[in-house]
Amino acid sequence: MIAVLCGGVGAARLLAGMQQVIDPREIVAIVNTGDDTELHGLHISPDLDTITYTLSGAVNPATGWGLGGDSFRAMEALDRFGAITWFRLGDADLATHLFRTGRLRQGASLSEVTVEISRGFGLNIKMLPMSDDPVRTRLSLRDGGEVAFQEYFVKLRHSVAVSKVRFEGAELASPAPGVLEALETADAVIVAPSNPVVSIGPILSVPGISEALEARRESVVAVSPIVAGAALKGPADRLLVELGEEASAVGVGRFLRAVVGTLVVDEADASLAGAVRDLGLECVVTPSVMSTPEVAAGLARVVLGSASGHRLDPADSHEL
Amino acid sequence: MIAVLCGGVGAARLLAGMQQVIDPREIVAIVNTGDDTELHGLHISPDLDTITYTLSGAVNPATGWGLGGDSFRAMEALDRFGAITWFRLGDADLATHLFRTGRLRQGASLSEVTVEISRGFGLNIKMLPMSDDPVRTRLSLRDGGEVAFQEYFVKLRHSVAVSKVRFEGAELASPAPGVLEALETADAVIVAPSNPVVSIGPILSVPGISEALEARRESVVAVSPIVAGAALKGPADRLLVELGEEASAVGVGRFLRAVVGTLVVDEADASLAGAVRDLGLECVVTPSVMSTPEVAAGLARVVLGSASGHRLDPADSHEL
After folding, report:
1. Pairing relation of β-strands B230-231 and B226-227?
2. Looking at residues B206-232, what average pLDDT do you find?
3. Which residue, B265, B281, B271, is CA-closest to B227?
4. Based on the domain organization, do A146 and A211 belong to the same domain?
5. What is the span of the domain harbouring residue B178?
């Protein structure tokens, strides 16, 4: 069994690659819920949904989130009330949030609903939210004020400088049922190429999770989401710099080294391998920009090989 | 100012007629919320919405509820989770429920959200829910068991026999702000041609409302929703019989006579006028089947005229 710490789009693509090379039933995805938000009374879990939609093939390929071919009549109709419409919820997408919210109000846990939704989409991997308790990522802006994650990420399009990130509620949260067990018994733990600050950070903030990773650090493999000094998607590069770290695979390694034993970096960062090793990490160099399912599968093989101590040649990745 | 006790479709049509003959700002609609339900975590107020959609011209004319030209993608998508889909919520219609639910979760009262929604639809009448507190109509079935109103009305299509109706929460509910004031100060109170048992009944169950009507019974005018022994829509006729009353304008009169001074009956029931008067009610006979806006306006004029003691000739109704 392989446990994977996951944010949104990058994690979804790596999981899709892993599904090609190992039995999906061997995969346990432990997913960030620090981005979760309540909007129009609905409980929205963007990272859980992005993974679900991607793995089921239902995702909107143009955006990497939401459902392909969706319409936005509810959003258009919300305009007449002056309601928030910058967070776009498609009509078919709404069904996921309606079902989740209805079940939560009936008393189901987020873990339980997550299983039900992933079954609804026919997934074979096991998906766990990092916690059933509310943990909310909040960002202090350099120009003053504090905003919730979605306000930073969607409304402000992450084009504002951040001075501090905190995970509200984390100290009172517990890992969701099965999370610690998965982290303790997995053959390997993978940290997906997700934003280390605001996607992996919230997961690590839940008491017990960092400790479980530290205890098995040698078999924890992270994939750098920073390639050639830039984030493939989103604000990971700027956030690292704003929080005093460098925007590079080395910065990612330094950020994660307490809980990670191996860092996988892109070929474009081959020259950084020495600096990563100087941090006390193993470093594996391989194509990591998952622009096609083949690259994703190749990356998955390398990551899994690294984790098991049997590093595979990425050139073999099409054969398995 | 005219106060109107309202259920759904019949009330919406009478209000639309009233809007043609008096200034809409003079109308206060006091609306049944005993049908309200929570579904998929959303607070749904069917009677409030039917009135709003009808008066704004946005209603689906084929059904009398929902929005014209709406789509049902969210409902279709809910199917994959095995969620309840017998209560059909259109995609644009969902916006109303999302906005209401979001505002309620923020701490707004149902009265406050009702004003906001009616403004969003450009209405000029004042709409008040009967209560900001939850009152839920529940029906005991003759074959056993008790169901919520929407389960009876929509899921079972009201084709089951009922032995008892109760309004859960009524004894603890208060009239919404402005309701008693409207009932005490209105020039007239109209009871719309809505189901007396499950549309008007819940309003009368809220402590203080029946008392306010009894105190001014002589200027309270009801329109019979039963014409020639049958309900124009819905199960009013069967419910009256199942609860021991007769399915006729006379039955309606007997059901409401404690709070009503005048009953308006359709021309088809002219022969019942004597029996209605024998109950101690005034009886006015006029066309009441609101198949066109002209009939609705004519009925509105007669009702308003009856209430003010200056009964107008329905033949004049097109002239005003």
Report:
1. antiparallel
2. 96
3. B265
4. no
5. 2-135+168-316
Question: Residue B101's pLDDT band (boundaries 50, 70, 90)?
Answer: very high
Q: Do A141 and A225 sit in the same domain of this protein? A: no
Q: Do B92 and A73 touch (CB under 8 A)?
A: yes
Q: What is the pLDDT of residue B313?
A: 45
> In total, how many domains does chain A have?
2
| A143 & A193 share domain | no
pLDDT band at B260 (very low <50, low <70, confident <90, very high): very high
Interchain pair A94, B99: CB under 8 A: no
Residue B268, φ and ψ in degrees, nearest 5: -65, -20
Q: B120 and B141: one domain?
A: no
Average of pLDDT values for B237-261?
Answer: 96
User: Is residue A90 packed enough to be buried (19+ CB in 10 Å), middle (13-18) or exposed (0-12)?
Assistant: buried
- Rounded to 10 deg, the angle between the A46-55 and A110-120 helix axes is 20
Contact (Cβ atoms closer than 8 angstroms) between residue A160 and residue A59: no
ipTM entry: 0.90
Question: According to the model, what pLDDT value does residue A307 have?
Answer: 84
Average the pLDDT over each of A29-38, A231-240, A265-274 and give the range with the smallest value.
Answer: A231-240
B295 lies in the same domain as B308: yes
Q: Of A123, A145, A164, which marks where a domain is finished?
A: A164
Q: pLDDT tens digit string along B113-136?
A: 999 999 999 999 999 999 999 999
Residue A94 lies in a domain: no
| Whether residue A152 sits in one domain with residue A51 | no
Residue of B91, B104, B105 lying closest to A91 (CB–CB): B91
Last residue of a domain, one of A146, A164, A182: A164
Q: How far apart are CA A103 and CA B55, in angstroms?
A: 34
Q: In chain A, which residues have their Cβ closer than 8 Å to the Cβ of B117? A: 81
Is residue A90 in some structural domain?
no
Q: Is the pLDDT of residue A316 over 80?
A: no
What's the CATH code of the domain at A186?
3.40.50.10680
Which of these, B97, B78, B75, B12, lies nearest to B47 by C-alpha position? B12
Same domain (yes/no): B243, B103: yes
Q: What percent of chain B has pLDDT over 70?
A: 96
**DSSP string for residues in A149-175:** HHIIIIISTT-S-EEEEEEETGGG--B
Mean pLDDT (chain B) is: 94
CB A300 within 8 A of CB A14: yes
Mean pLDDT for the stretch of residues A49-69:
95
Is residue A195 included in any domain, yes or no? yes
Residue A131 DSSP SS3: strand
Q: Is the domain of A238 the same as that of A301?
A: yes
Asked if A295 is an interface residue toward chain B (Cβ–Cβ < 8 A), one would say: no
Report yes or no: B102 at the A interface, CB cutoff 8 Å. Answer: yes
For A118-128, give one letter per residue: b (16+ CB within 10 A) or e.
bebbebebbbb
Smallest CA–CA separation between A77 and chain B, in Å? 5
Query: Once rounded to an integer, what is the mean pLDDT over residues B202-207?
Result: 98
Q: How far apart are CA A128 and CA A172, in angstroms?
A: 18
Establish if A72 belongs to a structural domain: no
